[in-house]
Task: inverse folding
């Protein structure tokens, strides 16, 4: 096992999110690896933290990637963020991502957490946690 499949997974997830029509209709091109400096959009999706564990076995090398995708909104309620979170799930659950390194065995939704942050709790954030299994890395 190695961390070698992480970049390939991130790239494939990013491309899948950018290509998903329903998500694009909601956030446009506001899907980020790092939130840009300057004016931040009122609604965006951000690729977040990742934990990777060895899942090698007698058949070869493998890794389990648990990663977070965040939906951030400055709307007064959660509805807009929840609609975007649903589109993120629709884009990724069951997706057959092609990786530049390793082979995606599966991609699953694990859990989500919705909360408020920012000055006066004016930011809505939903953190979606997914799990991917990659073999051959």
Result:
């Amino acid at each position: 096992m190695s961390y070698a499949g992480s970049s390939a997974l991130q790239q494939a997830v990013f491309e899948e999110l950018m290509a998903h029509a329903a998500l694009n209709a909601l956030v446009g091109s506001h899907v980020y690896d790092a939130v840009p400096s300057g004016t931040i959009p009122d609604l965006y999706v951000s690729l977040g933290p990742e934990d990777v564990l060895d899942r090698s076995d007698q058949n070869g090398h493998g890794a389990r990637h648990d990663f977070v995708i965040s939906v951030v909104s400055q709307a007064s309620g959660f509805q807009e963020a929840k609609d975007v979170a649903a589109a993120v799930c629709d884009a990724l659950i069951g997706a057959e991502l092609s990786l530049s390194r390793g082979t995606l065995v599966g991609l699953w939704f694990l859990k989500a957490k919705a909360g408020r942050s920012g000055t006066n709790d004016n930011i809505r954030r939903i953190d979606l946690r997914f799990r991917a299994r990659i073999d051959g890395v």
About this structure: Strands lie at 31-32, 43-54, 62-73, 103-117, 123-135. Residues 6-107 form one domain. The chain has a mean pLDDT of 94. The two ends are 6 Å apart (CA to CA).
